TrEMBL record:
Membrane-protein topology: Multi-pass membrane protein
Needed cofactors: heme
Cofactor note: The heme is bound between the two transmembrane subunits.
Official protein name in the record: Succinate dehydrogenase cytochrome b556 subunit
A GO molecular-function annotation: electron transfer activity
Family in the record: Belongs to the cytochrome b560 family.
GO biological process, one term: tricarboxylic acid cycle
InterPro entries reported for this sequence: SQR/QFR_C/D, Succ_DH_cyt_bsu_CS, Succ_DH_cytb556, SuccDH_FuR_B_TM-su
A cellular-component GO term for this protein: membrane
Major site of localization recorded for this protein: membrane
Subcellular location: Membrane
Amino acid sequence: MLIGRLSMASTERPLSPHLQIWRWGLHMGLSIAHRTTGIGNAVGALLLVWGFYALASGPEAFAGFHDFLTSLLGRLVLFGVTFSVMLHLCTGVRHLIMDTGRGLEIASNRRIGILAILAAIALTLGLWAGAYGFAGAL
């Protein structure tokens, strides 16, 4: 009898709309970006582990790691990881704000989303400008 109830209850549940019905918006893109940057941060963590391993392995291993980081590809990867961390941070703060019940209206949600993107860009560029300014001072 219990099995009959479970199958009957599952057929009476409303189905959620398919993705074709929903219009894509900034809030959906940022939610996906938050998850994607989490994966990008894992790549950054692997890069950090590689650096620690190279440092512990000796000068030759660290020289190879340093050569990669100072190459064009290495700098692009580092810039991408930096932006990934900053966007993940900013969209995480956005989620925290929304968890308090604020920013759930469409207009305010859009403003917070745009602010998160601009803040991530500003933090990334500021960090890189500061790093190059600090390196140039040495």
